[in-house]
Design a protein that fits this description.
The complex is a heterodimer. By secondary structure, chain A is α/β, with parallel strands linked by helices. Chain A is 38% helix and 14% strand. Chain B is built from 5 helices and 3 strands; from the N terminus they run H-E-E-E-H-H-H-H. In chain B, 49% of the residues are buried. The model of chain B has no long low-confidence stretch (mean pLDDT 93). Classes of the chains: A alpha/beta, B alpha+beta.
């Protein structure tokens, strides 16, 4: 296996489960553990499992400062986004059929919006500025008489940029519209205080915050009350909002991960911030490297850089012992470059050239140094191979060249 | 990306030892040099292929080749593979090279076949350029 020798800088995609979390999860599976069904009310196996689920719910609520009764377990942030967007739209469709979102949302919001369009809803997709930010003013201007929901992400997964939830929420409150926020990238990275944030629904994921994959949660505000139509019907679990036997080991994992996140957020931040600073300083010594996303308005754990005249997938192949991701078309099945980078108005070639580095709790300084040195080397080598770099050095403006686009 | 070992090896070898794998340039204004450049930066791949030929009997033989490629790993590997096929071939033989040969040599996945098509186009253009100078 090459896993050990590969430096992992793709924390925004997923994080490893913190060993403390894994050992806690293990206590809820086997015959000598608490394996019961939390919905079993008639014996201690059920009661114990239910206790564990409720304790985990408190840990999640505690991290974002809400009432535990406002947390609904889901299979992940994708399901939470689906439940929020479709759930609100379908429940309140008699009040209106217009939804506002943005072009750089995660597919877990964009695809439900597309589905709602097929069901007769109307969706406005706001354009981010060139730094990847959606401005409150844009939301205000997009609101119509029939608008029922605004769904915007907190931290963009490709860029790490932050939207101003307070300012946007004040606008939605004033207009009497629900505000859903995808906060999959936020937990453990920035403070979230739902007791003061004017947000009605918020999606969370465990596996971006050192918890297991396959579990997430949706915050559904009680006051003022938000109602949603369920997507999954069955035993009426989670107060009818999400049926299906709860998975205590997963839930306990998410709870423990979020409990640790609360305790260690500051330490994680200080560490990651130092890596970000170092990485930025050194990577920007490479000529024609461009940061994607507003540097003054982003989290330090995600850094998205385009290296002009080099194609992203070849760069990833060159960085073979480093796990990162790219906005390049060639790494996706669709052969389209990142829709997020395109929405920023970046030229396609810069989207093709982008690499997302994301750091986390288990990153160390020597990994950062090693990556930087390999990065410098590989970008140089690929540019030696690049006809575009050669033309650039010859003083040719690539924008004036007539390309053969087949 | 499920690349074959052949693509990965070819890419890495080319990257690590560009001179040995014919990365470079000829002066395009020289009479015995033909240049072909295909693709577009916005599409994510550009291949530049140059051939240096000599007359031999009633045809011309490719004596040397240089290339540069901007693109994904399989685009770079495809160019590099093509270059190896070209040296020593007559122009007529070179014209017969089909993208399928590159696909087979590198075991390209279906989604990357366009890389081999681009490579085939680059040699056609380079030969055209060369012949227009003779």
């Amino acid at each position: 296996m090459t896993i050990k020798s590969t430096i992992y800088l793709d924390y925004a995609s997923t994080t490893p489960v913190d060993p403390r979390v894994a050992s806690k999860m293990m206590q809820y599976l086997t015959p000598d553990g608490e394996f019961g069904n939390p919905a079993s009310r008639s014996h201690r196996y059920g009661w114990k499992a239910d206790d564990a689920v409720e304790e985990a719910r408190s840990h999640v609520a505690n991290l974002v400062n809400c009432d535990p009764r406002e947390i609904v377990w889901t299979s992940g942030a994708t399901e939470a986004d689906n439940l929020a967007v479709k759930g609100v739209a379908r429940f309140y469709k008699s009040k209106g059929n217009h939804i506002i979102t943005s072009k750089i949302e995660h597919k877990a919001v964009l695809d439900p919006c597309r589905q709602l369009e097929r069901e007769g809803f109307e969706v406005t997709y706001l354009e981010p500025d060139e730094g990847g930010i959606i401005h409150p003013k844009q939301v205000k201007e997009a609101i119509q008489e029939n608008t029922i929901l605004v769904s915007l992400m907190h931290i963009n997964n490709e860029l790490g940029t932050l939207n101003d939830l307070t300012a946007i929420g004040e606008i939605t409150r004033e207009a009497g519209i629900f505000f859903h926020v995808d906060a999959a990238q936020s937990t453990g990275k920035v403070e979230i205080d739902l007791s003061s944030l004017p947000v009605d629904l918020m999606s969370f994921s465990a596996h971006k915050t050192y918890g297991p994959k396959g579990i997430g949660a949706l915050f559904v505000r009680r006051k003022p009350r938000v109602r949603i139509e369920a997507l999954i019907h069955g035993g009426g679990h989670e107060r009818g909002m999400r049926s299906g036997t709860l998975a205590p080991h997963q839930i306990v994992g998410m709870g423990e991960a979020f409990r640790i996140a609360k305790e260690e957020m500051k330490a994680d931040h200080i560490k990651v911030n130092a890596f970000h600073k170092k990485f930025l300083e050194e990577a920007m010594k490479i000529e024609h490297a461009y940061i994607n996303g507003d540097l003054n308005n982003k989290v330090p754990n995600i850094l998205n850089i385009s290296f002009n005249f080099v194609e992203g997938e070849s760069l990833i192949m060159g960085l073979k012992d480093i796990a990162v991701s790219s906005g390049s078309a060639c790494t996706s099945a669709s052969l389209e470059p990142s829709y997020v980078l395109r929405a920023l108005g970046r030229k396609d070639e810069l989207a093709h050239s982008s690499i997302r580095f994301s750091f986390g709790r288990f990153t160390n300084e020597s990994e950062i140094n090693q990556t930087l040195s390999i990065l410098h080397n590989v970008v140089d080598r690929l540019r030696e191979l690049s006809p575009l770099w050669e033309m650039h050095l010859d003083g040719i403006d690539l924008d004036t060249v007539k390309w053969d686009t087949n | 990306m499920a690349y074959s070992k052949k693509v990965v090896d070819k890419f890495e070898n080319t990257l690590n030892n560009p001179q040995a794998f014919n990365v470079g340039r000829f002066d395009p204004s020289e009479e015995n040099v033909g240049t072909g450049m295909v693709g577009a930066p916005a599409c994510g791949d550009v291949m530049k292929l140059q051939i240096k030929c000599e007359p031999s009997g009633n045809t011309h033989v490719i004596k040397d080749v240089k290339f540069k490629t901007y693109g994904c790993g399989s685009a770079i590997a495809s160019s590099s593979e093509l270059v190896e096929m070209l040296i020593g071939k007559t122009l007529e033989e070179a014209k017969e090279i089909k993208n399928k040969e590159i696909v087979e040599a590198l075991e390209l996945p279906p989604i990357k076949i366009h890389c081999s098509v681009l490579a085939e186009d680059s040699i056609k253009q380079a030969i055209e350029d060369y012949e227009s100078k003779q």
